[in-house]
Structure formats: structure tokens, C-alpha cells
Amino acid sequence: MAGLVRQWTDAWNACDVDGILALVHPEFRMHRMKGDVIDREGLADAVRRQTYGAAMKLFPLRLYGRGNQFAVAARIEYRHVEDGELIGATDDGGMAVETREGVVVFAAPQPTCADALSKAGLTEDERIFEWGDGLD
């Protein structure tokens, strides 16, 4: 799963629509923080929008999981696309993730890691990976 998370963040950060769509199930749904739900095409549109104005960049920190339920703690940076200037950042972002057949079928970005853990039905005790520990 750590490899899938790394591929997702790499594709997102590179604005690689084909790359990110290769990582999601045909029945993919993302429940976004603003309350709407998007499918594969909505995800493609979201990735395309990262190429102008302000872009969100994702940097995974920790992975929690059990079965096919996961939560990712991440640093999230917002940068101007034109010059890369940092607009804002948090080291406590998160996303709940469900996988099926080796790809993402459900994703729900959350304001904090604790919220992502709760959404995924997981706890801090279910940490399975940490980036920067020499394994990634």
C-alpha cells in the first residue's frame, strides 16, 4: 500500500492525469471536504486544475491500515504554480482510503490525520509505515 500512496502523490504532484487514473478503480468515488462527491472524471478534472493558479502538493508522512481500509497522514503545501511560492502548508493533513483489487476505490481527504483515522475506522496503533524510515 505504501507504494500505491507514493504513486498517487507522485502523479498528483506531477499533474499526471493518466498516472492517477491508472491507480483508481472504475467505481472510484472521492468525498471531498467541501461536501461533494467526484468520480474518475472529477478526479481527472481536479488534477488538471493543479496546473494553474494555486496548486496543492502532497507529501505522505505516515500510513495506517487494516484490511482494505487505510489512512494517510500528509504534509500539504499550497503553492503558486507560476513561481512555486509557498502560500500555506499543514503537516497534519490526512486522507481515508479504501482499496479494491489493488487500486483506490474510495478516498476522503480530511482536515487532520485524526479525522482521516476516524473516517477509516482506524487508530494510531495501526500505523504500518512511515516515510523517511529508509523503506521507501
Q: Briefly, what is this?
A:
The protein is an alpha+beta fold and 136 residues long. It has helices spanning 2-13, 17-21, 40-48, 113-120, and strands at residues 24-31, 37-38, 54-66, 69-80, 86-100, 103-110, 127-130. It has one domain (2-130): Nuclear Transport Factor 2, Chain: A, CATH 3.10.450.
Secondary structure class reads: alpha+beta
What ranges have pLDDT less than 50 throughout 5 or more consecutive residues?
none
Strand order of the largest sheet: 2-1-6-5-4-3-7
CATH topology: Nuclear Transport Factor 2, Chain: A
Instruction: Enumerate how many helices there are, as a single number.
Output: 4
Q: Could you tell me the number of beta strands?
A: 7
**What is the CATH class designation?**
Alpha Beta
Largest sheet features: 7 strands, mixed
Structural domain count: 1
- Straight-line distance between termini: 11 Å
Share of residues in helices: 25-40%
Taken as a percent bin, the fraction of beta residues is: over 45%
